[in-house]
């Protein structure tokens, strides 16, 4: 599985970091995206979606406020992942309406729980 974590974080208490660790534990290829980081959990961080080197993405996980996520919908559409996961707090009615109009395969749920993990199993140390 190839996964992009949009809004990945080096802060281990943030869900954008717990998602990176969760999918690493599954053995997925993880591409963290954050313009303010260079490395997260030993992985190279990409400053934007357009710089993710793999264009065959299974899941794109969103860990951004809706006001930021909505500005990236065009870039998400260009990357064309099989699934776009809007995690709790990253979705809004307007954003979901736009993704529907764009024909994206959207899931609104916790992408960590969806793979059988609990965010609490990833320590914040």
TrEMBL record:
InterPro entries: CoA-bd, NAD(P)-bd_dom_sf. Residues 2-114 form the CoA-binding domain. The lineage of its organism: Bacteria, Pseudomonadati, Planctomycetota, Planctomycetia, Planctomycetales. It comes from the Bacteria. This is CoA-binding domain-containing protein. SUPFAM superfamilies: NAD(P)-binding Rossmann-fold domains (SSF51735). Pfam families: CoA_binding_2 (PF13380). It comes from Polystyrenella longa.
């Amino acid at each position: 599985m190839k996964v992009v974590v949009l809004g990945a974080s080096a802060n281990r208490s943030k869900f954008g970091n717990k998602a990176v660790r969760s999918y690493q534990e599954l053995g997925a290829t993880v591409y963290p995206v954050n313009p303010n980081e260079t490395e997260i959990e030993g992985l190279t961080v990409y400053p934007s979606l357009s710089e993710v080197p793999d264009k065959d993405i299974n899941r794109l996980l969103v860990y951004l406020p809706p006001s930021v996520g909505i500005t990236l919908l065009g870039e998400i559409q260009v990357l064309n992942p099989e699934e776009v996961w809007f995690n709790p707090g990253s979705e809004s009615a307007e954003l979901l309406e736009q993704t529907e109009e764009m024909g994206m395969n959207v899931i609104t749920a916790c992408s960590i729980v969806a793979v059988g993990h609990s965010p609490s199993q990833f320590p914040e140390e």
